[in-house]
Amino acid sequence: MNEILTAVIPIVIIGLVCAAVLVIASKLMAVKEDEKFPAVRGCLPGANCGACGFAGCDGYAKALCEDSSTPANLCVPGGESTAKQLSEALGVEFAEVEAQVAFVHCGGDCSKTQDKVEYEGFSSCAAANLLFGGKGACTYGCLGMGDCAAACPQNAIYIKNGIAVVDEEDCIGCGICTRTCPNHLISLVPQKRKVTMTCRNKDKGAVTRKTCSNGCIGCKKCEKSCPRDAIHVYENVAEIDYSKCIGCKLCAKNCPVGCIEM
Amino acid sequence: MTKLIIILLSAVFINNYILSRFLGICPFLGVSKKLDSATGMSFAVIFVMLIATAVTWPIQMYLLNPFNLGYLQTIVFILVIATLVQLVEIILKRYIPSLHKSLGVYLPLITTNCAILGVTILNIDEGYTFAEAMVNSLGSGLGFFLAMVMFSGVRSKLEGADIPKAFEGLPITLVAASITSLSFMGFGGVIENLFA
User: Fold this and answer.
1) Per the domain annotation, does B193 fall within a domain?
2) First-last CA distance in chain A
3) Nearest-CA residue of chain B relative to A24?
4) Under an 8 A CB cutoff, do B72 and A11 touch?
5) Chain B residues with beta carbon closer than 8 angstroms to that of A3
6) pLDDT tens column, A11-65
7) Domains of chain A, with CATH numbers?
8) What is the pTM of this model?
9) A13 → chain B, closest CA residue
């Protein structure tokens, strides 16, 4: 009996001492967690898409709690309702979210342009692009192998008539496809926009003409017709500045090739 | 001094905890996929091995041995090491958040790892003095680090290799681990003769 006690008592004492030390330490050295964090994190959708520019929803929530200058309207998938909840949780004023969607800036479908070679390799835009810029006559255009469609977490992109098309109903504006396209053809544009450029061909007008009937020839007619200086031709292709665009559609009406979509 | 150097070198190379004693295989297979997580884990192991030895050696010598409680070694060591790692984690979180961030994930993982318990018990079994025990722990930790870093290199090569279907994943990892371990057998007998 005595031997059992000499074993049990030290173990119990050691256990109690250890427990006491841990309890005291955790009380004395408790790190204050921001009490706002769980509430803020709860507002976010948890898609971890990175559209806000932070590393996942946790990262954005942390930035919101720690730095009050972080805007509360950065969450694109969550949209307006999330931004409202966030500004309530943080006690800041609500700022409207401008809904953004991805857009594939290429209108060169099968009826507008032709293939210059037959490609029978690995079915991926990245692989096809390595081989003389893809099979299409235009090396700037959509390769049509669907790397963006495969990357899209919402399955909002599909290949139609040889080019990728974004379903704007399903698109959450996360921007993953913009980083996937080897030709950097996809960008985020405001959902409420009235006009969109559907070409990114930087060749001179005469060269573009031969490869695709939808190609921007850089004639600058749009530039001259725009009342707000919102469209400019850089490197033989027009670009729209949506912060200035008022949606008058004059550029699209004046475009001789019709590469500005209304 | 020579003895300390021999203990250090043989702990790193000859009695390498992973490759010749086969302790701590779990983190060895689990965390060796990437170099940065392998180094993080290894530094945590070195750190915990050192503090665990620093605490368990006096407990054995001044508490268990005088009362003939040697048979309680395992349970007491586990209890003390677990408490100690928790305590260190709390302290790090409070005072050195950057170190807590880099070691933090791995600290709780290795609290009751067999390599840690193995070092503390073997230190007693070998009859080391306190200084020798500390040096042995440092060497064991460094040996763990060496094996982890080397093996993360091997594994990154395996990722790109064309491996037969039946060997993919863990089987080829174990084969590679055993070959790495064989190569360490080459150190046997070298260290003792260095200072002979």
Assistant:
1) no
2) 93
3) B87
4) yes
5) none
6) 899 899 999 998 998 888 777 666 777 778 888 887 777 777 777 788 888 888 7
7) 37-90 (1.10.15), 100-191 (3.30.70.20), 193-262 (3.30.70.20)
8) 0.57
9) B76
